[in-house]
Write a structure and sequence with these properties.
With 806 residues, the protein is α+β, with helices and mostly antiparallel strands. Helices cover 28% and strands 25% of the residues.
């Protein structure tokens, strides 16, 4: 016989074969059916367990029994694939309403794998019966199994909207489904709403179905993603774990995680938090432990004493799976074709399916009732003529003759005649006759009821609603997942930084760092201070100021330029660390030094920057002119040759100003004497200096405050502003403090209130924090009192004020 060859192009064969494979995966494995919400393997497991008699009121049997039965009869795809599906249906952290009642280790939320199927036992859960009930009443079609030996249901006659109640996940070829679980009570309310108003909108449906209801609880932030999924079948929702706060003895806060987002591994979450602490991305956690038990989940995160718990929580949301995004894709098989379904459409398909199931079940029950009534009618005839019937049977030579003679004499059908022949003699008693009559009348009523259901669609809908109401009564429960109004914006770095006061230290050689104000302890006047920075012999601390982490920092340089960064961008360092080189934070030139740093909260306010130069020039520039200052810097003031910028203050434009020269003279004048100028202007004369004179500082006159002057050798005093008479701008000035070798030159000056505290910094890295009230109020010519005991080689280089509210 001649061999026949058919030429086939490779690309055509690959395309055809891959399409066949794709459809096999889509229909046969990965996607659930819109009607019962089950994938084929799940459906086969439930059916096999029903056939094995593993109902909720029966004893457990080894999971191996189920696996073997499913594998041998219905699903020849591998034992572990079947067991994984069985185990998932028993996990109360995977399914909102578990279908299988498992005994033994079926895995955990910590990611533990289930024990081998030879060790675990299973049976059907009560709610699984709602999927399987009426299977024997011809409600669904049966199809041949993989080898044609047996029959299996093509779909379960589900009485619950299982697709949305338990959700589903699956990756097919070129598509994937990710359906979140929902609350069954809400789903049934939604079904009622659709039945009552088929034209109901997705927006109106959300009044009945709030959104996903995960088995692990959690919190959904915002409703936009839910609304989108209701309308299109696709959406994204942000899910957070549920947390609380507890306070330990000693004032430490604890963050308690009681619920985590759906499908998040608890152990992986804890390990991620621990890794972030180790990497110092989250620095305020002192201890982490898992105290979960059979009563529920409890992850304890213990914070450091001064930690901001809200900031740590935001860091956890940003960097860990404590906040996740759940992408909703309601993709299911509709007539074996994958469809993306808005939630109303999915529920409508379930309603249509229930109409079919209830109709087919009613027809089956009607047929069975009519058959039983038909038999009872024959039995009633036999009882009415019992003597003749007995005589006829006795005189017949065999069963076939007796059946034929009964049919002919009493005009019975073959079924009725056979029922008479099968009838037990006990039914001839008077009591049994009455029961027979009652049974017949009940059947007549049942037939009438069943026929009334089949009369109209509305009657069928009433039955469906009644049965759904019973399901809700049996399985309805409270929501586990909370839904909060609002939108989740992407967290910025600033959102993760605590709003707290920081001490910012800048060294002479250009290093800068920040430390919390809380590390400084109060000391009485004359104390020796504590070491808060170890700078070294070649460098010394030059400036110290107080600012909040969210503030802007304006850096003013010797060349009259301004730069800007946020306080939190300055690295927080330990007492022994130098900090970060300023040139790595802002783009200053090698020959350009920082002479002033000014914290600014908001550039939009009607304020000014008042600047003073080394040669006595002053300038006032609107604050808003610095709003676009960046790391590369902008011009703040045009300087004369040999001049440099030495001070800058934030002012409202209505203050009086005091400028103090290095030799101890000062001028006091109104800020209004200096008109606002542009950034490129050069300024006007503020104080007239001697030939070798220079300005050492300036400050604003503040009501109910005093002028504080501190010298290099640790002497200081407070003087009332009223002691300084007004002079014209550009005057030589009056004495502010009497200086000599004992006091040294002026180190710094500022306006202070009675309730303030000050921090003094020395070039060797020592600091002292002391109340202003301990520094005496003296007149202008006085030298002052000792504020800080100094080593002979040390000097005060800067002072900073700490307000009472800090």
């Amino acid at each position: 016989m001649a061999e026949r060859l058919t030429p086939v192009y490779v690309e055509d064969e690959i395309r055809t074969s891959y399409l066949d494979y794709s459809m096999s995966v889509i229909v046969g494995r990965a996607l659930p059916d819109v009607r019962d919400g089950l994938k084929p393997v799940q459906r086969r497991i439930l059916y096999a367990m029903k056939e094995l008699g593993l109902l909720s009121n029966r004893p457990y049997k080894k999971s191996a029994t189920v696996i073997g039965d499913v594998l041998g009869k219905y699903h020849p795809h591998g034992d572990m694939a079947i067991y994984d599906a069985l185990a998932r249906m028993a996990q109360n952290f995977s399914l909102r309403y578990p279908l299988i009642d498992g005994q033994g280790n079926f895995g955990s939320i910590d990611g533990d794998a289930p024990a081998a199927y030879r060790y675990t036992e299973a049976r059907l859960n009560t709610i699984a019966g709602e999927l399987l009930n009426d299977l024997e009443k011809e409600t669904v079609d049966f199809v041949a199994n993989y080898d044609g030996r047996l029959k299996e249901p093509s779909v379960m006659p589900a009485a619950i909207p299982h697709l949305l109640a338990n959700g589903s996940t699956g990756i097919a070829v070129g598509m994937a489904t990710n359906i979140p679980p929902h609350n069954i009570g809400e789903l049934i309310d939604g079904l009622f709403a659709i039945i009552d108003d088929p034209d109901i909108t997705a927006q109106a449906l959300m009044k009945h179905i709030q959104g996903p209801d995960f088995p692990t609880g959690g919190i959904i932030i915002g409703k936009e993603g839910i609304k989108e999924s209701f309308e299109t079948g696709k959406g994204r929702v942000v899910v957070r774990g549920k947390v609380g706060f507890e306070e330990k003895k000693g004032g430490k806060d604890q963050i308690i995680i009681a619920e985590i987002p759906y499908q998040v591994n608890k152990t992986a979450l804890i390990e991620r938090i621990a890794a972030l602490v180790k990497e110092k991305k989250i620095e305020d956690i002192s201890d982490l432990r898992d105290e979960s038990d059979k009563e529920g989940m409890r992850i304890v995160i213990e914070l450091k004493r001064d930690a901001n718990r809200e900031v740590v929580l935001n860091q956890l949301y940003r960097y860990t799976p404590l906040q996740t995004t759940f992408g909703i894709t309601i993709l299911a098989l509709v007539d074996n074709v994958p469809r993306t379904l808005p939630i109303k459409t999915a529920l409508q398909h379930f309603i249509d399916f229930r109409v079919q199931v209830v109709t087919r079940r009613t027809k089956f029950e009607l047929m069975e009732a009519e058959r039983k009534a038909h038999i009872l009618e024959g039995l009633k005839i036999a009882i009415s003529h019992i003597d003749a019937v007995v005589e006829l049977i006795k005189t017949s030579k065999d069963v076939d003759e007796a059946r034929t003679r009964l049919m002919k004499k009493f005009k019975l059908t073959e079924i009725q005649a056979q029922a008479i022949l099968d009838m037990r003699l006990a039914r001839l008693t008077g009591l049994e006759k009455d029961k027979l009559e009652e049974e017949y009348l009940a059947l007549i009523k049942e037939i009438a009821r069943l026929k009334s259901i089949l009369v109209s669609q509305a009657s069928v809908m009433r039955v469906i609603k009644s049965e759904l109401a019973e399901v809700k009564k049996r399985y309805g429960d409270s929501r586990r997942t909370q839904i909060i109004e609002g939108k989740v914006e992407d967290l910025t770095i600033e959102d993760l930084i605590a709003l707290e006061d920081m001490v910012i230290t800048r060294s002479h050689r250009g290093y800068i760092k920040r430390q919390a104000v809380s590390i400084y302890r109060k000391q009485i006047r004359g104390g020796v201070g504590r070491t808060i920075t170890d700078i070294g012999e070649e460098d010394f601390a030059e400036e110290l100021l107080i600012a909040q982490t969210h503030d802007h920092l304006l850096f003013f340089t010797t060349k009259g330029k301004a730069f800007c960064i946020k306080v939190y961008e300055i690295p927080e360092a330990s007492p022994v660390a130098k900090g970060r080189f300023i040139a790595n934070l802002i783009e200053i030139q090698k020959d350009e030094g920082i002479t002033a740093v000014l914290p600014v909260k908001d550039f939009a306010t009607k304020h000014f920057i008042f600047m003073t130069t080394r040669l006595g020039t002053v300038k006032k520039v609107p604050l808003e002119d610095f709003a676009n200052t960046r790391r590369k810097g902008i011009i703040a003031v045009n300087l004369d040759k040999g001049d440099s910028l030495i001070a800058a203050q934030l002012t409202d434009g209505k203050n009086d100003v005091i400028i103090i020269a290095r030799h101890g003279l000062s001028v006091k004048f109104s800020e209004k004497d200096v008109r606002p100028m542009g950034r490129n202007a050069g300024g006007v004369i503020g104080i007239r200096l001697e030939k070798d004179g220079a300005v050492c500082g300036s400050c604003l006159v503040r009501p109910k405050e005093h002028l504080l002057i501190v010298t290099r050798n640790g002497y200081g005093k407070r003087t009332a502003f009223e002691d300084f008479r007004f002079t014209r701008r550009g005057a030589k000035g009056v004495i502010a403090i009497k200086l000599d070798k004992k006091t040294g030159e002026i180190a710094g000056t500022m306006s202070v209130a009675e309730t303030d505290e000050i921090i003094l910094m020395t070039k060797e890295g020592n600091a002292i924090r002391t109340p202003v009230a301990q520094i005496r109020i003296l007149n202008r010519p006085a030298k002052g009192v000792r504020v800080m005991t100094m080593k002979e080689s040390d000097q005060v280089v800067d002072i900073a004020r700490v307000r009472e509210e800090n």
